[in-house]
Amino acid sequence: FKLPSDYFKYLNWCDIEEHDVRGNQLHCPRVREGPSEEELFFRGEEHTLKKRKQVTDTEKRQRKLQENWENCAELNLSFQDLGDLYQMENFKRILQRLIRVEKLWLVDNSLTDLSAIRLPRCRELNVNKNHFTSFKQLPKIPQIQHLSLAENNIMTLSGISDFRHTPLESLILKRNPCEFQERYRQLVFSSLPNLKMLDGIPKLPEDCSPPDIRVFFKMCTIL
């Protein structure tokens, strides 16, 4: 027998009737849309369709006000299962509205490119376990202080200097291919002079390379 909760398992929190909860009151909302009607039919879950209805323009405006993403200061949108393209489009629509968010977690969302997104007040961003391959694919985060990129696929440090003019203090790049680059820590700290901590380890004296260190490494001494 189906449990009563089965009728609600694919509903977004905005679609549940008789409540006045707004987006800025939630720290971990489920924003992923439910499966298509065709997919529900093949799953044998067409009983959930009775909860769906045609949304009017007035209801769309009311939903936008109820989501209230513009006033979110701290938000966790991790593990949203964004495998389909339409899921990603809806997800980016929400990100574009986060104009006041200061702490944002987007862990394990199969993200590849958020370069069109701007988060003007974001101070802490966690995008661990995604599919970023370059710093250029990250959102615009001019006020970033703590950035975590662990377990992505960033191959090189190209583009990291774009954060030179931000207040970035802490950076995590663990389990990215760039971590195995020769003189990895020295290169990161030379690109980001204001950085205080890399991969959980504070800046050490040996992380500060002299200006002519690159010339030294290119020289070959024959005895």
From TrEMBL:
Q: Which domain of life is it from?
A: Eukaryota
Record-annotated membrane-spanning stretches:
none
Q: InterPro entries given for it?
A: LRR_dom_sf
Q: Does the keyword Repeat apply?
A: yes
- This protein's UniProt keywords: Leucine-rich repeat, Repeat
- Protein name per its UniProtKB record: Acidic leucine-rich nuclear phosphoprotein 32-related protein 2
**What taxonomic ancestry is recorded?**
Eukaryota, Metazoa, Chordata, Craniata, Vertebrata
